[in-house]
Amino acid sequence: MSRVRPENWRPQGVDDLEPRAWEALRQTGRSVLVTAGAGAGKTEFLAQKASYLLQTGLCPAPKRILAISFKRDAARNLSERVAKRCPPEQARRFNSYTFDAFAKSLVDRFRAALPDPYRPPADYRIVMPRRQDYRDFLDTRGFHGVNADQFERAIARTRLPVVHEGSERERAVAAYWQAQYDDQDDVQLSFLMINRLVELLIRMNPSILKALLLTYPVVFLDEFQDTTFAQFQLLRTAFDGSGAVFTAVGDDKQRIMVWAGAMPDAFGQFEDSFAAERISLICNWRSHEDLVRIQHVIASRIDPDVEEPEARADRLVDGDVAAIWEFDTEDEESDCLAQWIEREVQPGNVEPHDVAILVRMRADEVEGELAPAFAARGLRLRNAARIVGDIAIQDLLGEDLTQILLRLTRLGASARSPDNWNAALRDLQFIEAIDPADEARQQLLQDRLQKFVREMRHTLRELDPVPESAAAAAQAALDFIGTEVLRQAFPAYQRQPDFDRVWNGFKLLLQESLQHSESWSDALDEFEGLGQIALMTIHKSKGLEFHTIIFYGLDNQTWWSLTPDRLEELNSFFVAFTRAKQRAFFTLCAERGQPVAWIENLLAPAGVRRIAFEGRHGE
DNA sequence: TGCCAAATGGTGGGC
DNA sequence: CCATTTGGCA
Fold it and tell me: What is the pTM of this model?
């Protein structure tokens, strides 16, 4: 493999990097903390740096780069960007995991090295305890002095093995660990517990740690502002004094997860622990200058020392790019919003999925409020957090089973679809574990798929595209693969309830999608959320971007008052505002309540006007 | 029935 | 941290 000399290496897929990004990219001798505001391209920077290290041989085979993200989307996105730029033998040495997937893989691989009583059986189960579960535990065990809200944090901070004496809180943590292992046939571990097990594992087993360090001399950390105490402690146990070189990226103005356990000062701790150099990126590639100027007013309130970003996107719209829209009644508000969006979408100024309605909380309620008015104008809302059956739409769409069934159904619904055909072939190859080099079996597979497509087309022609047909169509697709074969291929579906959750969700969402569709093809588009206006909470919108955002309910009292302790609400507002590439609007409704004063005070000096919405007079 | 205090849920994510 | 719901009690 030919290597590029470091001085000759050029970024790929973008014209250039900003000077600070070059500096952070070339810093390979010590850890760097890359802080950057919204739209600075932090993830893209990591992808470029990975390509640089792999292509120049600064990270030579067999050494690897370990990239750690929080969300699966982010982890996948990062590895796709590297795969696009590097040949397979290099891309293979870029290992992009979520924090939890990485930790679990270590527990699964080195389970035997864990000491009693913490060694889990091979078939331990992952559980996701909610606050109420902790409350119940503390209640039934009589730990009445321990606050359930802080109990998870207590588990996070407690190194194993847990000492059984001490404060009530410590005894509660010890009892909790014991309780999870009580029934050896059904050991239930949360990801937090898996994290603690890995911390124990590498602390007790220098040889495992040594192997880890030899494999991964380079470590990337995405969205570092969200790092939890447990995660940070694990990183320290693993890499403190090891000589591993970190590249962490993040934005402390977007730190909105402290309530869920994120460290309030992850950046400072990181600098201290790993002697990191801090480098701030300055460009904003997402928003145009008029929005960036307003963003900077908000950012300065969060951090008075923040540098003004350099806007690098073009303004493509006329008129107001930010305003507060005022309405009298909620009906008027819903109707005017629908009308305004219709007028943007109809002439093709903007794609429906490039418009987002953001809320602070309770997206379901807002969906109920808006959906009728939107439907009346032929607009559909996609609330990805909505539960269908027993699964959220966003989770359903990310499931392997869903993707497989969707592709098969698409093949039956459309005349020709090479992308789906190839993807379906890949699915089948994987499910049936067929060697890509085995041409005879490949041919057989193609013939079978061909036959299925003919039958599926026939089936869908016979079935009217109405909700009552959903189950039969889904069943036809599933029967082609075979439930048992599928469950064998994906360990995640081996437990019946886990399979049913996805399978029922698939049928339900398909059924629902058929309510508003003229054809099977339309229904499948609807299923995937094509052509729909996004509706979500601010927290869900983190990391995403939209042409236009409309923040619904500036009068919502769930914007808790801003106190010196709780800057998080201001950060949330910053996250919402910075999702917009072109325009950001806010709605107020007299019927609902008073506007949140601190937000209005914040926006006024930025020149954001409050206007009585007059869209409906233009009819 | 009405009052008050306590409990609960909401902003999230992971195999 | 706030709004809403629940439960106990008069």
Answer: 0.92
Tell me the average pLDDT across A182-190. 93
Q: How many domains does chain A have?
A: 4
Structural domain range at position A595? 290-380+533-612
Q: What is the CA A286 to chain-centroid distance, rounded?
A: 19
- Residue A439 covered by a domain: yes
| CB A578, CB A39: distance < 8 Å | yes
Contact A251, A273 (CB under 8 A): no
Helix (H, G, I), strand (E, B) or coil at A98: strand
Same domain membership, residue A209 and residue A193: no
Q: What is the pLDDT of residues A543-600, one digit of tens each?
A: 999 999 999 998 877 776 666 567 788 899 999 999 999 999 999 988 888 888 888 8
* CA atom of A144 to C1′ atom of B6, Å: 14
Which nucleotide's C1' is closest to A360 (Cα)? B11
- Which pLDDT score, from 0 to 100, does residue A618 have? 41
Q: Which residues sit opposite A96 in a β-bridge? A: A67
Does any strand B atom come closer than 7 Å to the Cβ of A188?
A: no
* Residue A266 identity: A
Looking at A528, A553, A585, the residue that finishes a domain is A528
First to last CA, chain A: 65
Evaluate whether residue A314 is within a structural domain. yes
Residue A256: nearest nucleotide (C-alpha to C1'): B11
Conformation bin of residue A585: beta by default, left when phi > 0, alpha when psi is -120 to 50? beta
DSSP states along A467-536 = GGGHHHHHHHHHHHH-HHHHHHH-GGG-SHHHHHHHHHHHHHHHHHHHTT-SSHHHHHHHHHTTT-EEEE
A537 CB-to-strand B distance under 7 Å: yes
Contact present, A325 and A585 (Cβ < 8 Å): yes
Residue A190 beta carbon within 7 A of nucleic strand B: yes
A31 contact partners, CB below 8 Å, separation of at least 6: A245, A246, A247, A248, A270, A274, A275, A276, A277
Nucleotides of C under 7 A from a protein CB: 1-3
Kindly list the protein residues whose beta carbon lies within 7 Å of any strand C atom.
A 149, 557-558, 560-561, 563, 565-566
A153 touches strand B (CB under 7 A): no
Q: Residue A476 CA to B5 C1' — how many Å?
A: 56
A328 CA to B5 C1', in Å? 36
